[in-house]
Structures are given as structure tokens and as C-alpha cells.
Amino acid sequence: xxxxxxxxxxxxxxxxxxxxxxxxxxxxxxxxxxxxxxxxxxxxxxxxxxxxxxxxxxxxxxxxxxxxxxxxxxxxxxxxxxxxxxxxxxxxxxxxxxxxxxxxxxxxxxxxxxxxxxxxxxxxxxxxxxxxxxxxxxxxxxxxxxxxx
Length: 149
Prior knowledge:
The protein is mainly alpha-helical. About 70% of the residues lie in helices and about 5% in strands. Strands 1-2 form a two-stranded parallel ribbon. The termini are far apart.
């Protein structure tokens, strides 16, 4: 199953009932131990973290974000809900409010994974830059120490 990685692919998914059915069946097999775990896995399997940052459960934006798209009233939200309901071994949310809360946590988790990945990438670039600077310094010292011989 290919993850949805762009708004264009997302729109195609929203208009394709067969892909929605296919994703629902796939997610049922992904499952999870708890409803929270299952929804986190569903989101990871269905959408890239970079695409997930363009959504919120309700569509409400935080002050520093662009307008976010809602997940609660579109097909993929229903696919997640239906897949979770069909996972018989997972304790189910008590009501739609609890489901919404768990989805909001899953979305925040995806956004945190993306932030953490960016931090790790920046740290790696910084460490590599420091390593190169150190190696150049050591090469220069070696040249200075051994140039008089």
C-alpha cells in the first residue's frame, strides 16, 4: 500500500471509493494493541508525516500555521473510524468524542515525528560540519609541525 504523500494524491484518494475500501481492509490488518496505537499506525501507514502537517482533526488553524484541512468530515477520517470499528481485538473508544481526541493525538504525533526528523537532520549536518572543520584543523597543524623537517 502506497502512502499518500501529496494533496493531489490525497484528492484522488478522496474521489476513489475502491482505494478507500482497499485502505480500510489494509488498516484492519495493521491493527494495534489499543485504539490510540491503532490510530497512530493508521495515520503512519496512510499518509506521510509531511502531508499530515497540512491537516488537523477539525480544520482549525493554530496562529502560526497556514489554513489546515479538516480530517473529521472527509473520507479518510471515515476510513480510519470504520477500520478501527472492525478491529475486534482492540478496545473501542466509548464515543465519537473519544475517537476525535485520539485522532487529534495521532495527528500531533505525526507532526512531532516530522519536527524530530528535521532536528535530527539539522544536528547531523551540524555534526558533519564540525567534523570537517576539526579534520581541516588537524591537517593544518600536521602541515605546520612537519613543514620544518
